[in-house]
Each structure stands twice: as structure tokens, then as C-alpha cells.
Sequence to fold (238 residues):
Amino acid sequence: MRNKVLVVDDEQSIVTLLRYNLEQAGFEVITAMDGEEGRRLAETESPDIIVLDLMLPKLDGMEVCKQLRQKKNMTPILMLTAKDDEFDKVLGLELGADDYMVKPFSPREVNARVKAILRRTQVQTESGQEKQEENEYLQIGDLKLSSEQFEAHFKDELLELTLKEFELLLYLAKNKGRVLTRDQLLSAVWNYDFAGDTRIVDVHISHLREKIEEDSKKPVYIKTIRGLGYKLEEPKGE
Fold:
């Protein structure tokens, strides 16, 4: 079965270009030209991934992303924008986008990003042996993670995490007790150069703390190592 991509952009030339290249890469493509239609299709068509423009009529990309996440729709979102603006980038990721690209971009790069995101979200498509190797169950204090199911539980309650939040938490857990720099986390979790965009890491760390710490101002799991980075550790007394 082909993966379904929802492309939401109000520029017909970009929609046509992306549709052609994504279909050539083997994807099924559905499209919308405004935010309201994009949100509706995201809810009714169950795409595997959404390529979402930031500046849209009726409902902008930020609001589409926000509303989907509020409804617990965790479909991966690759956000597009003509603005090379740090604030927009961080805000988009704060609202739950999984990745971010600035126009102009090459269709080949969009295809590569889409494929990379889907590889990380569709573990079930791997062969049995690979799946066995990928499967890992980690527990640190009241935090439990399954790399096969892409699920995290805290005190036996399922956490609502974006793909990037989960990947960041899993990487920290796999390196329990080890201090990781922001650059290391960018490289490991985002898989390409976000040079200088270390605030993206800080935003995701903040979100994780809100979900797994009793007091996010006094974290016992994810510790800040001033001047270096972060580390995940077993809570004292566990």
C-alpha cells in the first residue's frame, strides 16, 4: 500500500511540483489550497504525513498544526515557509510540527525529508528481523519507553508526544547518565544540520519536562548541565 501525503499550499505551482515529484517517488498525493480544507482532509483522509505551508488563506499553517494536535491527531507534519525566520521555525516546532523547510527548496529534498519521517514512524513496515533488532523497552524511574511501538508511558499513563519529542526522549534514555550537547542532540534527532538552531532542542526539552516532571522548574529526570547540554538520569531515591 502506498503512503498517502497531504500537501497543503496556496501556490498552485508548488502544489503541482510537489504532487508530480511525490507521485514519481511512489506516494499517493492529495492536496488542499487553504488551511480549512487542509485541516478537514487531515481529519477525514488519514494521510501518513502532511506537507503544510505556513502562510495559508482561511487558516494559517500554525493554526492548522495547533488544532490537529489539540485533537490528538499526531500525523507527522513537515512545515514549509517562505520566511527564513527563527521565530517562525521555533514556534512551528513548539506547536507540534515534526520538521521544517524554508522556500525555495528542491523537490528532491522534500522527498528525502518525507521518506525520513515515514521511516521513523512506520516501524511495522520493516522486516521481522530488523523489527526484532529495533525493538527496545527502556524504563527509568516511572518512565517507560518502547522503541517499536513509538510509545512512552509515565506512571502508567500514555504520553501524547510528537515524533520529535519521542525521538529526543528515547535518545536521552538510551544515553542515560551521559551529558549530551545541544549539537549532539540536533545531529542525532534531527539528522541534518540545524546549525545555530539549538533553541529547537531547548523547546523540545521544555515540552518533555512539562510531561514527565512533577515540577518542570525543578526537574529530576532531564537535568540541564550548564554550559554543556542535558542528561537524563534516574530520579534520586528510585
About this structure: The chain has two domains: 4-121, 129-232. The radius of gyration is 18 Å.
